[in-house]
Design a protein that fits this description.
Elements lengths: L2 H24 L12 H13 L2 H7 L1 E4 L13 H6 L5 E3 L4 H14 L7 E4 L12 H5 L4 H17 L4 E2 L23 H16 L12 E5 L18 H8 L1 H8 L4 E4 L3 E2 L2 E2 L4 H11 L5 E3 L7 H5 L5 H11 L4 E2 L3 H11 L5 H17 L12 H7 L3 H14 L1 E5 L12 E5 L25 H12 L2 E5 L12 H9 L3 E7 L20 H10 L4 E6 L7 H6 L2 E4 L7 H9 L63 E3 L3 E2 L3 E3 L3 E10 L5 E11 L10 E10 L4 E9 L5 E2 L5 E2 L3 E8 L6 E8 L1
Parallel strand pairs: 1-2, 1-10, 2-3, 3-4, 5-6, 6-9, 12-13, 12-14, 14-15, 15-16, 19-27
Antiparallel strand pairs: 7-8, 11-16, 17-20, 18-20, 20-23, 21-22, 21-26, 24-25, 26-27
Helix pairs in contact: 2-15, 3-14, 3-15, 7-8, 7-16, 7-17, 8-10, 13-14, 17-22, 18-22
Bound molecules: 1-deoxynojirimycin.
C-alpha cells in the first residue's frame, strides 16, 4: 500500500468518524446526558463499537494516572500519547478545568474515534473544601449531613473537570491498626450500610443533568477491612458467612443506591485475589446484587496477582482478571500490553471484551460526554463553586457534628465565655496542613483554620489571654519545649492540649502496631496535669487510640479526628458551647493493644466473661471492656430514658414489632441524642452476636422536654445467613435493647413465632 493511498483512505475514514461522532453529539435535542439503558444509547454504543479495533477496545479498558499526583507505587510516562493512540480511555489524578480540558482535547480531537475520557480522582472527603475524614463523619450518625458532604464534594470536583470519584470506601473494619479505617464508616454493618447509601446518593444524585454530580465507586470489594494483624494489603481470611453477614451489606446498599462503579480490593478472599475472584465478581456482585456498572481494579491490582502466587505472569494475570469480570485495569498496563494477545490466543473472548467496553461507554454516555465532552470543564463554575461560603459553612457544620465528647469531668466544658487565660499547647494546635487528614483530594493546608487561629480570634472577641506553646512534636523524643508548656499551664485557668497522630500515620499503607499517642505527647500531658490546672485534651487522629492514662487524668477529652478546612472554628464552637456535641463513636476504643480486634457485636462463646472465674474468655492482665464502646459519646445535655414500651411480646414473621421509649432532656441546655436500638437472637441455627444495631434516631430536645422515639422491627430486620446459608429470620426469643450506647442498654425479651 503506497503512502498516498494510505493518506487518502485515512482522510476519508476521518471524515466518516467525525460525521458519526457529530451525529452523536448533535442528534439529541437537549443537552441532558443519556440514560445508558435507553434503547437509543445502546444502538449508539453498538455503532461506536462496530468501528473500534481490538486495540481501541482495550484502550477503553485502560486507566492511567497522570503525573499530577501519585497514589501508588508506579507512574507511567507519556500518557498524552496513550490518549492520542486510543490506548487509554480514562485518567486519574488529573483535575482542574484547564488541565482536564487540555487532555480531553487530545482524546476528542486527536484520537481516531474521538471517544471522550473519564477523569477519576480520590475525592474522599472533599475536593478543595475538605470535610471531616469519613470515619469522623460517621460519628455524626447524621445521614442527611453525610449525604450533603458527598454532594458538596461532587459539586466541587465536577466543577474542576472530574467525573468519577473513588469513593465511598464501604469497608467495615474492626481493626484500628489498619490505617484505612479513617476512610470508612466504622465497625458496624447496619450503620455502615446506611452511610454507604447516603454517600453514593450524595456523589451521584439523581442524574448528571447539571454536570454537578460524579460517578461513585464503592470500594474495596471485598473484605479489605479485615487484614490479618492490621497490616495494609495483608491476607484476609474469613468465612463466607462472616463475609455475607458483616462485610457484604454495605456493598449491597451501595449497589442498590445506584453506584455505577466498583473497585476490587488488593486482598485475597478465600485464597483467590479479589481482582480475579469469580465468586465475588460474578456470583455475588453481578448475579446476586445485580450490579450493572463497571468494575475497576485497584492500583496495579492485576499485576500483584503474580506476587500473590495466583498468576504465572502478567499476561496470565490479565486473563484471570478479565475472565473473572474486571472491566478496567487501573495503572497496571496489563490489559494494554497483553490482552490483545490473550484474545488472539483464544484465552479471552472478544465477547468478554465487548461486555466490558459497553459498560464503560455506558458510563460515558450517562455522564453526557458524547454530547459535550467538555461539559465538566466550566471554568466559571470552577471559580464560584469551590470554597463557596455555603460549602465552607457546610464543612464547619459537619465538623462540629463529627466531634465526640469522650469525657467531661466537673462540667469543665463548655468553657465559660469570660475567662482570664487559656494555655493552648501541643503539636497539632497550629498545624494547618494536618487538619486535612489523609486522602484530602486537592485540599491545601493553607486554606485550613487551625485551633490556634480560631482561638486567637475568640480571645480578641471574648477578652481572654491565649498562651500558645507547641511543647513538642508529634513524633520524636525532644522534651525541651515542656518547660514553657508547663509555665503556660501554671499561668492559665485551663489547658487545651491538642495532640494526636500526623495525617501521614493513617490512610493507605499506614498501619501502626502501637496505638498510643506517638512521641512524647503523653509525657507532656502528664506534666501539664501535674500542674493542677485542668487539662482538656483535643485529639486529632485517624483511628481509635489506646489512651487509658489520659482517659483517667484529663478533665475533658474531645475526639476531633481530622475535621478538614474548618477544623479550628468547629473545635472552638464545641469548646465554648456554641455547639453542643452530639456525635457517638462508630469504632470501639481499646484500652490496650492486646484487646485488638475489639468490637461491640462479638459472640458470647461457650465460656463468656466472668470476672470471678478463671476458666472464661478473658485476659489475666486487664479487663475485657473497651475504653470507650461503640455508640458512646457525651453531650453538654443529659438525657433520661424511661422504660421501653413494646406493644406485644410475641410477633409473627408477617407482623411488625413496635417499640418506643421516652427520652427526656434533664439538663438546662438544648441538645441532641442518638437513641440506639440493638437486638440479640438468643438461639440460632448458627450462633449470633451478643448485640446488633438495628435502628437509631438522632433527636433534638430543648431543655426539660421529652420525646417518644419509635422503632419498628420486622422479621426481615432479624434475618441472617442461617446454617444452610439462607437469608432469613428464625423463630425464637430475642432481646430488644435500647440505650445511649452499646453498653448501657435496657432490655426486653420478645418471641418471634412462625
Ligand atoms: C490505591 C487505593 O487503595 C485506592 O483506594 C485508591 O482509590 C487508588 N489507589 C487510586 O488512588
Amino acid at each position: 500500500m503506497n503512502n498516498e493511498y494510505r493518506m487518502n483512505t485515512s482522510f476519508i475514514y476521518r471524515i466518516f468518524y467525525v460525521s458519526l461522532i457529530s451525529f452523536f453529539l448533535f442528534s439529541c435535542k437537549t443537552q441532558k446526558p443519556a440514560d445508558p439503558l435507553a434503547k437509543g444509547v445502546s444502538q449508539k454504543i453498538d455503532s461506536i463499537m462496530s468501528l473500534m479495533t481490538l486495540d481501541e477496545k482495550i484502550g477503553q479498558m485502560t486507566l492511567f494516572t497522570t503525573d499530577w499526583g501519585s497514589t501508588g507505587p508506579t507512574i507511567r510516562e507519556g500518557y498524552q500519547d496513550d490518549i492520542r493512540q486510543g490506548r487509554c480511555g480514562a485518567l486519574f489524578n488529573s483535575h482542574t478545568t484547564a488541565f482536564t480540558r487540555q487532555l480531553q482535547e487530545i482524546a476528542v480531537k486527536e484520537s481516531r474515534l474521538h471517544i471522550p475520557l473519564i477523569f477519576g480522582y480520590d475525592v474522599i472527603h472533599g475536593y478543595k473544601t475538605i470535610f471531616p475524614m469519613p470515619l469522623a463523619e460517621s460519628c455524626s450518625w447524621d445521614l442527611a449531613a453525610i449525604e450533603n458532604s458527598a454532594s458538596v464534594a461532587a459539586d466541587e470536583a465536577s466543577a474542576a473537570g472530574l467525573h468519577w470519584t473513588y469513593a465511598p470506601m464501604v469497608d467495615i473494619s474492626r481493626e484500628p491498626r489498619w490505617g484505612r479505617v479513617m476512610e470508612g464508616a466504622g465497625e458496624d454493618t447496619y450503620l455502615g450500610s446506611l452511610i454507604a447509601r447516603a454517600r453514593v446518593r450524595g456523589f451521584q444524585g439523581e442524574n448528571f443533568d447539571h454536570a454537578d454530580k460524579i460517578i461513585a465507586c464503592i470500594k474495596h470489594y471485598a473484605g479489605y477491612g479485615a487484614p490479618i494483624a492490621g497490616k495494609d494489603y495483608n491476607t484476609v481470611d474469613m468465612s463466607e458467612r462472616v463475609f455475607r453477614d458483616t462485610y457484604l451489606p454495605p456493598y449491597k446498599a451501595g449497589v442498590e443506591a445506584g453506584a455505577m462503579s466498583v473497585m476490587t480490593s488488593f486482598n485475597e478472599y478465600d485464597g483467590i485475589p479479589a481482582t480475579a475472584n469469580k465468586f465475588l465478581l460474578q456470583t455475588v456482585l453481578r448475579n446476586e446484587l445485580g450490579f450493572k456498572g463497571f468494575v475497576v481494579t485497584d492500583y496495579t491490582g492485576i499485576n500483584e496477582m503474580v506476587n500473590h502466587g495466583y498468576a504465572r505472569d502478567l499476561s496470565h494475570a490479565g486473563e484471570l482478571a478479565v475472565n473473572a469480570g474486571v472491566d478496567m485495569d487501573m495503572q497496571g498496563a496489563v490489559f494494554e500490553q497483553y490482552l490483545k494477545n490473550s484474545v488472539e490466543g483464544a484465552r479471552v473472548t472478544e465477547k468478554t471484551i465487548d461486555a466490558s467496553v459497553r459498560r464503560i461507554l455506558e458510563a460515558k454516555f450517562a455522564l453526557g460526554l458524547f454530547k459535550d465532552p467538555y461539559r465538566y470543564c466550566n471554568a466559571e463554575r470552577e471559580k464560584t463553586v469551590i470554597f463557596s461560603a455555603a460549602n465552607l459553612e457546610a464543612a464547619r457544620d459537619m465538623a462540629r457534628k463529627s466531634i465526640v465528647l469522650l469525657k467531661n469531668e466537673k462540667s469543665t466544658l463548655p468553657l465559660p465565655k469570660k475567662m482570664h487565660s487559656i494555655a493552648l499547647v501541643g503539636p497539632l494546635a497550629d498545624a494547618k496542613s494536618q487538619m486535612l487528614g489523609a486522602w484530602s483530594g486537592a485540599g491545601d493546608g493553607e486554606s485550613c483554620i487551625s485551633v490556634k487561629e480560631a482561638l486567637t480570634e475568640r480571645a480578641a472577641k471574648n477578652g481572654f489571654k491565649l498562651n500558645y506553646v507547641k511543647g513538642c512534636e508529634i513524633e520524636g523524643d525532644v522534651t525541651k519545649g515542656f518547660t514553657n508548656a508547663v509555665m503556660a499551664a501554671r499561668n492559665s485557668d485551663v489547658v487545651i492540649a491538642v495532640v494526636g497522630e500526623s495525617k501521614e500515620m493513617s490512610g493507605e499503607a499506614s498501619a501502626r502496631s502501637d496505638l498510643s499517642l506517638p512521641g512524647v505527647q503523653e509525657q507532656m500531658i502528664k506534666e501539664l496535669v501535674a500542674t493542677g490546672t485542668p487539662v482538656i485534651v483535643v485529639l486529632m487522629n485517624g483511628r481509635p487510640l489506646t489512651i487509658p492514662w489520659i482517659a483517667e487524668h484529663a478533665r475533658a477529652i474531645l475526639e476531633a479526628w481530622w475535621l478538614g478546612t474548618e477544623a479550628g472554628p468547629a473545635i472552638g464552637d464545641v469548646l465554648f458551647g456554641d455547639y453542643n456535641p452530639s456525635a457517638k463513636l462508630t469504632m470501639t476504643f481499646p484500652r490496650s493493644m492486646g484487646q485488638i480486634p475489639i468490637y461491640y457485636n462479638y459472640k458470647n462463646t461457650g465460656r463468656p466473661y466472668d470476672p470471678n472465674s478463671k476458666w472464661t474468655s478473658k485476659y489475666l492482665d486487664g479487663p475485657n471492656a473497651p475504653l470507650y464502646p461503640f455508640g458512646y459519646g457525651m453531650s453538654y445535655s443529659t438525657f433520661k430514658y424511661d422504660s421501653m414500651q413494646i406493644a406485644r411480646t410475641e410477633f409473627s414473621m408477617k407482623d411488625s414489632l413496635l417499640i418506643s421509649v421516652k427520652v427526656t432532656n434533664t439538663s438546662e441546655k438544648e441538645g441532641e441524642e442518638i437513641v440506639q436500638l440493638y437486638v440479640r437472637d438468643l438461639v440460632g441455627s448458627v450462633t449470633r452476636p451478643v448485640k446488633e444495631l438495628k435502628g437509631f434516631e438522632k433527636i433534638k430536645l430543648p431543655s426539660g422536654q421529652q420525646k417518644i422515639v419509635n422503632f419498628k422491627l420486622t422479621a426481615k430486620d432479624l434475618a441472617f445467613y442461617t446454617a444452610d446459608m439462607k437469608f432469613e429470620a428464625e423463630p425464637g426469643k430475642f432481646w430488644i435493647m435500647i440505650g445511649p450506647d452499646s453498653e448501657h442498654l435496657q432490655k426486653r425479651e420478645v418471641n418471634l413465632i412462625k
